[in-house]
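Supplementary Note 3. Input sequence used for the single-chain structure prediction.
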Amino acid sequence: METDQLRLRFSATVSPSEDPRKVLAAMKNIVGDCDFHLEEAAGSIEISSSSIRCIQKVHDQLRDRHVRDAARRLLLRSQDGDSLRLLFNRQAAAAGVIVVCASELESPLGPIVLEIQAAKVQELIDWLTTH
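The predicted structure, written as discrete structure tokens, is reproduced below.
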């Protein structure tokens, strides 16, 4: 998978009743072991990167959990030019499992949002859902 011009942004809101460290830990469970930039502000956490390694764990779990077809449909629906948007259930991520959501309502505490910009979006969708 060619990765030039790839930008990834994971974001999550943090409610006043939540521990920001736990939200960050859930996000890191999705991101895995990769280089990223972390920004924390009151009420939000953002992780950004241009490394495909930050979505390798997403790729692997989509394949291992046999949900590639559903994820492909969601990605194709979310495609807007060279951008994609994917939502992950925060509670599942806290437990180390990647669960893709069709809507924000499927994650009661609010989803972890992944926004992707890529020069070759279709190639990225194919890599995530068919290999």
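Residues 6-130 form a domain with the 50s Ribosomal Protein L5; Chain: A, fold (CATH 3.30.1440.10). The longest strand covers residues 6-13.
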